[in-house]
Design a protein that fits this description.
Number of helices: 5
Helix content: 55-70%
Number of strands: 0
Shape: elongated
Order of helices and strands: HHHHH
Structural class: mainly alpha
Largest sheet: none
Strand content: under 5%
């Protein structure tokens, strides 16, 4: 019985957790996006994606594809687009 009460209490508190979260504002979104990009850098994400996409190509085209995807993409612009949280489209 005691275990059921503890489980019920944990579930109840878990259901209330959104109430205690930060307000959903553009500034909060930007800060959270920046925090996410610190632990998951766009360059590493993009390199990993290029590696996975290259696996779908013929073997003789993989290295050229990975080189193109990792050297011709503006990572700074990509990062800026990922952080932008005002609901507007990204423009330089």
């Amino acid at each position: 019985m005691k275990q059921k009460l503890v489980v019920l209490l944990v579930l109840t508190l878990s259901a209330w957790s959104p109430v205690f979260s930060a307000a959903d504002t553009p500034e909060t979104r930007r800060k959270e996006a920046e925090r996410y990009l610190q632990v998951s850098p766009p360059k590493a994400l993009f390199e990993d994606m290029a590696d996975k996409m290259a696996e779908t190509l013929p073997a003789d085209q993989r290295e050229q594809f990975k080189k193109l995807m990792t050297t011709q993409v503006d990572i700074a612009a990509l990062s800026k687009a990922m952080i932008r949280c005002d609901g507007k489209k990204f423009h330089n």
